[in-house]
Amino acid sequence: MNSQDKLNRCFWCGEDQQYIHYHDSEWGYPVDDDRRLFEKVCLEGFQSGLSWLTILRKRENFRAAFDNFEIEKVAKYDERDMDRLLADAGIVRHKGKIAATINNAQRAIELRDEFGTLAAYFWQFEPQLSERPAQKDEATLRKLAQTEASQKLAKDMKRRGWKFFGPTTAYAFMQAMGLVNDHMDTCFAHQKAEEARKNFTPPQPK
Length: 206
Fold this sequence. Notes:
- By secondary structure, the protein is mainly alpha-helical.
- It has one domain (11-198): Hypothetical protein, domain 2 (Endonuclease III, domain 1), CATH 1.10.340.30.
- It has helices at residues 17-25, 34-47, 52-57, 59-65, 71-75, 79-86, 95-115, 118-122, 138-143, 148-159, 167-176, 189-198.
- 32% of the residues are buried.
- One of its GO terms (biological process) is base-excision repair.
């Protein structure tokens, strides 16, 4: 429960106002916008070894540095862009993660050519209700680092040449983009996310 507004929230968002806003307005709500999906894949990769709050606080810097994660623009980055990004103190300056982002933009174009949209590809991996835990309390969700669905997604993306996207990262992506609703049962946003999912039509491949 947040001490200021007395709303019950998921255990992980704490008291940081930026994190609370992200939890309340973004996390767990279904997304079918390709730019947002690509951005999240990239930022989840940058998060590896760090906290999401660290990345969230730098998100606007990342957007400025990576042309708002416009896939076609990032896919064309060259060595000059690599040097520019490595010199940018506003982002995480990790050569492997930056190179992975450029690579993944190129792979994203390939996926769109095949499926029509990134969203149509990702939403194929939405797990069935029977695959989800019946009870979503803190103890259950703390142990739920990856699932069979996230393992399948990560394995398929690895086969397609994506980088920095293992099964744990894949599951965090699925949680954030609303492929699953992992707001705790006691969280005020759980029902809001559930309603959003009911009113959402998963995109289909072309």
